Amino acid sequence: MSSLFITFEGLDGSGKSTHLRRAVSWLEERGVPVCQTHEPGGTPLGDAIRRVFLDSQWGQIDGRVEAMLVFASRRQHLLELIEPTLAAGTHVLCDRFTDSSCAYQGSGRGLPADWIDQLDLLATERRRPDVTLYFDLPATSAYERGRSASRWARGDVDRLDDENLAFYERVRHRYLELVAADPERFRVIDSDGDKENTWHQVEAFLEQIFRPPEVTP
Ligand code: TMP
What we know:
There is one protein chain. By secondary structure, this protein is α/β, with parallel strands linked by helices. It has a single domain, classed as P-loop containing nucleotide triphosphate hydrolases (Rossmann fold). Helix content is 55%, strand content 12%. The chain binds thymidine-5'-phosphate (TMP).
């Protein structure tokens, strides 16, 4: 099997990052070579961009500036980590990729789709993951989870947490359009239930893709 580039997408509060970590452990326990990474970030330069991108001190950043930041991080990530890792035979599980830019900067911030497409062409040559797990839940549920008292008490909040519900409604709507436009690549995970229910769907996907080859007697 050639190595796979698998991305995890969804609204903040959708549970994708928790399940990505669990998926990585599941693969490691079975001896499958896997690299866990995230966007924006994934390289020293990308993580520096991430800190700037999420820092609440900037307040609202212009949507085009946001898009240029995330695509700058993405190009470095592809060149420095993602492509070399895949070429070395290791699967890459990445928390967010270009679909996030289409949803957050495209629909959330209202940037025209062809601007995102031009940046995507420049930065990634329209690189797409092999598979994308999209963790779906109503924007209201994600919003409530994201604003949980315990999360705010931990100080685990960033610049995009200041967005209102209408922003997250637009982001989810765009994700669903992306899924509809590329059903072959996307696998929709219903993450509106409890954690175990969500995990069973992720595990079913992993079992299907990484099933050990059958041994013929
Ligand atoms: P995370 O909390 O899932 O790591 O993502 C950080 C935030 O960055 C999240 O609110 C979504 C946002 N984001 C974008 O707006 N555009 C992008 O292209 C990416 C990768 C993330």
